[in-house]
Amino acid sequence: MSSESLRYDNNGKIVLGQIYNEPDPRAYYSTLRQLDYVIPDEAAPVFRELVAARRQMRGSPELSLLDLGCSYGVNAAILKHGVALDTLYRRYDDAQLREVDPGTLAAIDHEFYAARVADPHLEIKGLDVAERAVGYAVAASILDDGLARDLESGPLPPRDGEAIAGADMVISTGCIGYVTDRTLQRLIELGEAGEGPPWMAHFVLRMFPPEPFDAMFEAHGYVTETLPVTFRQRRFASAEEREHVLDNLSALGLDPVGREADGWYHAEFRLSRPRKDAEELPLARIVRH
């Protein structure tokens, strides 16, 4: 990836928007592989522990997740279909699959994922602004269902809300900070009007201040817990990107030593739940680090 061609957003991150809404995921996986993007693998063991805990509290194996910022369904591929991230990287770099058109690839993927359902009691729906990415993940049977909408601009119409209602847990591995507390509040309100308030399980880059989210969660009777460790997201694409992030962290009073100073984005894990659930089963008893 040539540093001369990189553009940066207001947060100092390189702009990769061109890979997130292609007709198929080949450019997405090819680009992120170059950056050692690992957060879905880092997050998976935590999500699996939370799925087990949520099932225990509900007394049922049936569970519904909503993946916020789902893109092409990478979290669903790992959690529901049991496909490792490295396998996904190698799959979409396969010489034969590189040559087919997007429609043919979606048909091939449909057979691949439909035959690999590691957790048949886990339903995973996706929500993302990238219409083609969500559409591909649904067509390829990676996601059970998906919706391409922007909750930052307004609430969902009733029909759209019905499509993603009933989630027991909302998960994400990188979109928080780009979506604000407005989106999360609308998802909570959707749950409150339906099956009940969902757990919120998010991996959040450290450069995004948590206070606006914490205040919103508290207003809805949620308690937020964090793990005492951080999780790698990806390597910095350039020295300039690294300096942007270190400046952001300095402004927040955060020490990058052993984390971002070593060349990687780092994320915190934040679990927000209704107070009753948090008191009955604290995060420290679900995920041990």
TrEMBL record:
<dbReference type="InterPro" id="IPR029063">
    <property type="entry name" value="SAM-dependent_MTases_sf"/>
</dbReference>
<protein>
    <recommendedName>
        <fullName>Carnitine O-acetyltransferase</fullName>
    </recommendedName>
</protein>
